[in-house]
Amino acid sequence: xxxxxxxxxxxxxxxxxxxxxxxxxxxxxxxxxxxxxxxxxxxxxxxxxxxxxxxxxxxxxxxxxxxxxxxxxxxxxxxxxxxxxxxxxxxxxxxxxxxxxxxxxxxxxxxxxxxxxxxxxxxxxxxxxxxxxxxxxxxxxxxxxxxxxxxxxxxxxxxxxxxxxxxxxxxxxxxxxxxxxxxxxxxxxxxxxxxxxxxxxxxxxxxxxxxxxxxxxxxxxxxxxxxxxxxxxxxxxxxxxxxxxxxxxxxxxxxxxxxxxxxxxxxxxxxxxxxxxxxxxxxxxxxxxxxxxxxxxxxxxxxxxxxxxxxxxxxxxxxxxxxxxxxxxxxxxxxxxxxxxxxxxxxxxxxxxxxxxxxxxxxxxxxxxxxxxxxxxxxxxxxxxxxxxxxxxxxxxxxxxxxxxxxxxxxxxxxxxxxxxxx
Length: 423
Known about the structure:
The protein has helices spanning 2-52, 139-144, 167-173, 234-237; strands spanning 58-61, 67-72, 118-119, 131-135, 175-187, 189-195, 208-216, 224-232, 243-249, 258-259, 267-268, 279-280, 291-298, 305-309, 313-318, 330-340, 367-375, 381-382, 388-391, 398-404, 408-414. Strands 6, 11, 13, 14, 15, 17, 18, 20 and 21 form a nine-stranded antiparallel beta sheet that branches. A seven-stranded antiparallel beta sheet has the order 10-9-8-7-16-5-19, with helices on one face. Strands 1-2-4 form a three-stranded antiparallel beta sheet, with no helix packed on it. By secondary structure, the chain is α+β, with helices and mostly antiparallel strands. The termini are far apart. The protein is globular and about 100 Å long.
């Protein structure tokens, strides 16, 4: 009997040892798999950084911690695009919209600035002619994105759709807007002077921006959009600074397009302004007000879409072939603010739009767009006919239009987000 028990005990011990070894192997392979996937991730991130950060001929450290690389103009990320391999860079547009400089009256209101807005990195140097300034992407920037592939991209369906908007679609996307818009014609560009603020962002995955949208096509999967303005986006930039940005897409934010120069597409020609770099100074409540002027227009000769910042800086262009509808013209222009409302704690976010104050508070307190223009088929700047307005929840963010001699068509917009009327 005892022999049988011993035999059983021996077998049990062997079984336990085998099970232990199996578990150990499992744990080792799990940790190996973990290490493998994290080293794979690191490899992907490194490869992406190498693709984005082109070798510079000069590097400038900005006071805000950014690194600005001066990259030869012909080595910029745009030329990673297969269709741009033999592209001859257009160094300046063939035509500027007519009437541009008559509309830049600066006597807009009390304490209007006369000193030009600059970017913070200018304090520490400038890029040589023949190069363009590119904000260097760091490993942390890419790791904050939901995936390497999604880095530098907006989420699908983040566009304000004024008229026949399905309210469910709007609330699901978590994006909220306060905009003015025109539609019903062919548009070849848009311009505005935009008040610059530094809105407070509640959650790192939220943002607040103020921009111009140049839109073509329906609001389906094939929407074309060119966007430019200022934004605060902790997720994208790792801080709460107000930054100049652009965006484009030709398929409603699905596979094409990106912010700034984070993919191939936009061709920059300016050696003086860096996309994604901080704007300084910004407006303060009941104090000095600062604004930037942005113009996007279609060159009638080559068909490319150009962008100008202020009176002096022609930044570059989006080649016409990137788009389907915008290869011809835009069917809608929008101006205004957008925030992400991720509904932290099940309540409306307290992320601010514009200055964080409602339109009725007026100059020095609420944020504005002024001297609003569209570009017509003859390449003339025109005041828009019938400016519509749109906001999903006016108790959270609102918009009010007006018209006067100095500011032409203008509007105040924005708000605090969560408040007793916007729970």
